[in-house]
Structures are given as structure tokens and as C-alpha cells.
Design goal:
single chain, alpha/beta, 7-stranded parallel β-sheet, 15 strands
């Protein structure tokens, strides 16, 4: 019996250009037999995007017991169709699960214990196992017999960003390496390397580097934005005549349907030429907030009640929440909102990527088509419900 994750040698590496500033550090060395651990300094430094306070190391340790030996001998081969989806109940994760099942993969889903069980995943044909990235001792058992990990997980809004998105991912990568996982797919954020002031983007970039230096065969996929997120943010409030929140910034985002993201992921997964590559997936066109609202208004057939939040207000609110320890996580998320509300373009040309994947651009759903389908279906349902309601009035 060996200590879990004890056989993960990684080269020492420093955060390029920012190691001395107190940013996250993704590399370290392990002595033979040492349990896997990683630490990074937490210092008062606005440039690093980390919370202020006295400098102290945060150590993440994966020391759970496992059944593998330090010198792993050849055993029963793991089927390439065996995958573990982490974050399977999320917006992207559930589409990855559906696509994998449709393509004949044996799908296992790592899900945190929850009051409402993820029965829909079982109904689809997936196997659900309980595990928690914030509790490293629960990870190794979920990886037994798995060939590929597809990591869609992200922290819940009510918990600190680092709990899952950094500490949990480090533990997961360490255990994946130690247990001989054959491939690791990680979803990141477009331009995360350009915004170290935003904790989530800094963490995504450092996780990319950590995965690259782990020695695991991997695919890193950077994403710009999900079309699905626009339904709750714009479409539903417009239909219900509620306020729609926007900013006065010209940010442009190339939203993509998560079904397309899932489909392209498996195309990349099966292409060995794309092993250890970084890809960026973007939709056919980048949209501003106002353009999205205008499109929703046209498709809904009614005007939106738009409340515009100036970028200056976001910046002030972020600085204000920095003064209070209990609002630090709010400030971290406002930092991300601030970037999305700046003069930034979250998009990239996809011609080369389509060529590598062997995909026709015409097969990628546009935002116009996606929202048209949504409004056509929802308005039809509303019309049917209204007709049924009138019939009910007559009968009763």
C-alpha cells in the first residue's frame, strides 16, 4: 500500500515574470516517497490578484491511501472509452456527458454529495460517483479504471475561488498522474494569460502550466463564452419584462453553444496530433452586450428594460469590497466582471482550428440561430399555455 500521489516528480518552475510578486507558483520538486504537495505565497500585492494579508504559505496536500505501488507494474489495460467527467452537472459538463454517451463512451461522473441527487445523469446511462475536489482523500477511488479525465469543474458562487479551481485541481492532477490516467482534458478561459489581476483567470493560467509540466498527456481548451448563459441573463428577463443588466463597455464575446464545444472536444480527444496542444474555441462572431440585447428584443417582439451599470461603478465596488475580509471573494468575482466590462475582445480566428479538427464552420451554431430556436420554442409554449388557460376558464 502506497501513499496516494506520492510518485509525481515535477520540475521546479517559477511564474514567468511574476514569481517575485507573490503570484501562484505551479512547479515544485518531490523527493522519492514524499507525499504530493504544492504551496504558494499569499501576500498583500494588488498586482498579483491575490487577497491581501500577512504572507503565509498555503499548502495543498494529497495524502490519501490508494492501492497502487510506487513502481506500477503492467496490469489490466484500461479501455480508451472509459472517461471521468468532473463537473458533470454544470452547463458544459452535462453536454459533455450527453455527447460522450451518444458516441459510445463509458461515462463516469464525479459529483459532490448533494441534497438533490444527480439522477438525470444516471437516467442518461452514466455512472455517478461521489467525490469532492476540496477533499483530496475522496479523489483516488473515483479514478480507478479511468482512461481519460474531462475536467469541466468550477467552484460554486458561495465558496472561495481557490478551493476548487486551484487547490482541488492541483490535487486532481497529482492523483491523475500518480494513478496512470492516460489523458486529461482541461477547460480554461481565453486570454487568461493576459489578466493576472483577475484571480480566476490567474488560477486558470497557472493550472494550465501545472498540467503541462505534470507530464500527463493532455488537451487544454480555452473558451470565450457560453450561449446558454445568455438565456437567464437576457432572454428570460426580457420575456418576463424584468430589468436586464448591462454595461457601457464595448466588450465583444464570441459565444459558443456548449453542444458544439462538447462535440469539438471529442474530435480533439481522438486526434493524437493534438495531444499536449492548447486550443481556443470561439463562436462565429463576437457580440457586444447591446447587440445581444437588441437581438433578443427583436426575437421576443418586445423592448427590454435595460439598466446600464457604468464600468467605473464596478471598479469602485471592487475596491470597496477589498476593505472587508468577508467580501474578498465578492471582489474576486467583480474583478472578472470588470474585465468582461472593459474594451476587450474575447474571440479568435477559428479557421486553423477548424482545419486541425476537420470541422466545417457551417456546422457551428451561430448565436442568431441558437436564440431564434429558443424564442420560437418558448413563445410557442407560452401561446399553448395561454390557449389552455382560456379553455380552463370556459370549463370552470
Amino acid at each position: 500500500m502506497a501513499t496516494g500521489c506520492s510518485s509525481l516528480p515535477l520540475p521546479i518552475a517559477a511564474r514567468r515574470g511574476r514569481a517575485a510578486e507573490g503570484g501562484l507558483s505551479w512547479g515544485r520538486a518531490l523527493a522519492p516517497g514524499q507525499s504530493c504537495a504544492i504551496s504558494y505565497p499569499l501576500v498583500a500585492n494588488p498586482a498579483s490578484g491575490l487577497r491581501g494579508g500577512q504572507a503565509r504559505p498555503l499548502v495543498v496536500t494529497c495524502n490519501s491511501q490508494s492501492t497502487f505501488a510506487a513502481n506500477v507494474q503492467p496490469g489490466t489495460p484500461v479501455r480508451p472509452t472509459s472517461i471521468l467527467v468532473v463537473g458533470a452537472t454544470g452547463t458544459l459538463g452535462r453536454q459533455v456527458v450527453r455527447r460522450a454517451l451518444d458516441e459510445g463512451y463509458d461515462v463516469r461522473c464525479l459529483v459532490r454529495p448533494r441534497p438533490a441527487p444527480a439522477d438525470f445523469l444516471r437516467d442518461w446511462g452514466a455512472i455517478v460517483v461521489n467525490g469532492d475536489l476540496s477533499k483530496p482523500e475522496t479523489i483516488p477511488a473515483t479514478l480507478v479504471g479511468v482512461h481519460t479525465i474531462i475536467d469541466c469543474a468550477t467552484g460554486r458562487p458561495e465558496e472561495p475561488i481557490r478551493t476548487v479551481d486551484w487547490e482541488g485541481k492541483v490535487a486532481l492532477i497529482q492523483c491523475a498522474k500518480a494513478m496512470g490516467i492516460q489523458k486529461y482534458v482541461f477547460y480554461s478561459i481565453h486570454n487568461c494569460d493576459r489578466h493576472p489581476e483577475v484571480p480566476l483567470m490567474e488560477i486558470k493560467y497557472c493550472t494550465e502550466k501545472y498540467l503541462q509540466e505534470s507530464g500527463l498527456k493532455h488537451n487544454i481548451i480555452r473558451l470565450c463564452g457560453f450561449m446558454q448563459g445568455l438565456i437567464g441573463q437576457y432572454a428570460v428577463p426580457i420575456l418576463e419584462q424584468q430589468s436586464v443588466w448591462g454595461t457601457d463597455a464595448p466588450t465583444r464575446i464570441a459565444y459558443m453553444d456548449t453542444q458544439d464545444i462538447a462535440r469539438l472536444t471529442f474530435v480533439a480527444l481522438r486526434n493524437e496530433k493534438l495531444d499536449n496542444k492548447l486550443l481556443t474555441f470561439a463562436g462565429p462572431r463576437a457580440w457586444t452586450t447591446q447587440e445581444v440585447i437588441t437581438l433578443c428584443e427583436r426575437l421576443a417582439g418586445q423592448d427590454a428594460n435595460v439598466t446600464t451599470v457604468p464600468v467605473s461603478v464596478l471598479k469602485f465596488t471592487r475596491q470597496l469590497t477589498r476593505f472587508f475580509q468577508w467580501t474578498n471573494d465578492v471582489a474576486d468575482r467583480l474583478a472578472f466582471s470588470e474585465v468582461l466590462s472593459s474594451d476587450t475582445v474575447f474571440s479568435t480566428p477559428m479557421t486553423e482550428t477548424y482545419g486541425l479538427l476537420g470541422v466545417d464552420q457551417k456546422d457551428i451554431v451561430s448565436l442568431e440561430t441558437y436564440l431564434q430556436d429558443y424564442f420560437t420554442n418558448i413563445l410557442k409554449k407560452l401561446k399553448d399555455l395561454k390557449a389552455q388557460s382560456k379553455q380552463t376558464d370556459i370549463f370552470f
